[in-house]
Amino acid sequence: xxxxVCFGVIVMHKIGxxxxxxxxxxxxxIPDEILTSDEPILLKGLVAQWPVVQAGLSxxxxxxxxxxxxxxxxxxxxxxxxxxxxxxxxxxxDYRGLGFESEVxxxxxxxxxxxxxxxxxxxxxxxxxxTTVDECLPLFREKNPMAIDTLNPLVSIWLGNASRIAxxxxxxxxxxxxxAGHRTFTLFPIEQIDNLYVGPIDLTPSGQMISTVxxxxxxFEKHPKFKQAIEHALVAQMEPGDALMLPSMWWHHVExxxxxxxxxxxxxxxxxSFMDAxxxxxxxxILTLRDLPEREKKAxxxxxxxxxxxxxxxxxxxxxxxxxxxxxxLDEMNARRIRSLLLNKLNR
Length: 348
Description:
- By secondary structure, the chain is α+β, with helices and mostly antiparallel strands.
- The radius of gyration is 22 Å and the shape is globular.
- Helix content is about 25%, strand content about 25%.
- It has a 9-stranded mixed sheet. It has a 6-stranded mixed sheet with strand order 3-14-13-16-11-7, with no helix packed on it. Strands 1-2 form a two-stranded antiparallel sheet.
- Helix 1 links the parallel strand 4 and strand 5 (about 40-45).
């Protein structure tokens, strides 16, 4: 463990080795091999020339003025936790509720609340997450372009003061751009899921399953296998203008360090829009497979390998195409057929 003074605050680096860093790439010329990388990459200065980044580097007031000028007036969801939580957005003590509050408000009110919190630590942490840029700041993408429009990304803004967001993973690929403040991303490959102690999946702070480990103060008696996860951890230290290419399904814990932090991210998936969220498989498998006798579970694992995980190319050529049904190519019509079949079976 090492400690250094950074950005005016003391930052504790307990785990992980530095993520791969690439410099000299601009937002308007990102190579395909970066956007399709299987491992995270920190792109130093990728969006440093964005007007919004330049406004923030000039002063916090100038950045606030910039955002307010672009604001459409649409409502945002503000999350707040008391100072005793130290900015950690997590469960309450018995994991049956959430340890923070939320309200629907305006971006102007959020920015005013952040200014007030800067003057008084007693006001706690404020956080706005995953707010659609095209709705909230409709001219933002025109003024701060990113050359990945062909991927049809969902673009979101995240802002607040000091906060800690529990480690989680997302299905889409993610390009996260630091606009203001400084962030630490702690990253793990998906294979570390067993060592990260996943919390309840039917109640989560933001819709995704999360690690229950407190990265700032890990309890190795309660979470002993977290030591194994640490051996595989990567850390990205981000400053304004940096971007992190985060491939699909990588665990990421995010800590924002400053009194005012802004991040813009781009999510995209190389999958057809008619496909359902893979997390639904977990719910259905718990209902149908998890508690079967071990020998039956192993048999069903073989069946799943056959129909899902094995190479499907030419697997069903022995069946005439018109008769392949849902085993055939997955298109929008077949997707609707499968949904209808599932609903009928679940509702019987």
